[in-house]
Amino acid sequence: METIRPLRLGAQSLPDCDSRIMCRNILLDMLGEATISVEGDDLSGVSGLYWRYVSLSLATIYLPRAQLTVRAKGAMDQSVVILRPVEGSMHIRCGKRRIRIGRNDVIFAPANDAMDLELTEGGRLDLAHLPAHSVASKGHILKPLMLKPIDAGCLPLQLLTNYAGYMLRQDAQSRKNADMMVQHFHDLLPVLAQHLGDAPHPAAPQARIDSIKARIEENLSDSDYSVNQVAEAEGITPRAVQKFFSREGTTFSRHVLERRLANAKMMIIAEGAALPISQVAYLVGFNDLSYFNRTFRRRYGMKPSEWRRLAADHNGGEAGGNQTG
Fold first, then answer.
1. Is the distance from CB of 129 to CB of 80 less than 8 angstroms?
2. Pairing mode, strands 56-62 and 124-130
3. What range does the domain containing 30 cover?
4. Which of 148, 171, 195 is the last residue of a domain?
5. What is the pLDDT of residues 215-249, one digit of tens each?
6. CA 221, CA 231: separation in Å to the nearest integer?
């Protein structure tokens, strides 16, 4: 039976350089390119938990107990990130706005916006990432929640964080259970909005881009999958498909490449040395190993084999797993 596992990274002995690489790779999927500045300029000893699924990513990062700043350039799509500082307050600078979030409070933010996160005491930071395709039809629900601190005592919020904690703590769970938990997580979003007095407007029609991206996810392993096939399945023209991606600042081909590389990165971790890099490339839809190695290195700053060795080192020689479908 296929299982979904959280990735456990880091140890107290992890040096500054490796800690920064680990943080960069986790934050890349949550906030886009990001850097961390810490008091004393030493990020040694970072550890974390990372759980990634097709419509939800979760992370807990244990940072040094010192004042630090995370500077994020912003993700490439209209995704949403949920942030919770656990051991002290946090200030968010987003555009001209500066917002304070208390310890254990939560804030929803647009992941595509550049932002600075200032953690006054460092320590644990919890993050959840809702990919654009999973929230495309929920804009009317999420908009009232954006950039508004939510008190930790809010009951629907507690249910959300409990779901997230459960998924991060479990060593393994079936895909069926993972689907159920993620669905419940998303179902709680309108409950949270209504509880806070921001009841959503009647549901908008399912966004076309949501359907397009779902079809892409189902066919990533097919190296020949094309914009023409998506267009035919959706009953629209290839040009119309390209326009949907253009509105998000990307293209069909770039989106497919990003998703294949992300799946490859997690598969390398999940399978460790048991699966050759060439097989990983094939399984995620690449039929040219040289092209795969070259684009992987350009995207993540290291070769696939280097990423596998680093992940294995972080897990005591045995890479944990997380399969994304």
1. yes
2. antiparallel
3. 3-195
4. 195
5. 898 888 898 999 999 888 877 888 888 988 888 88
6. 18
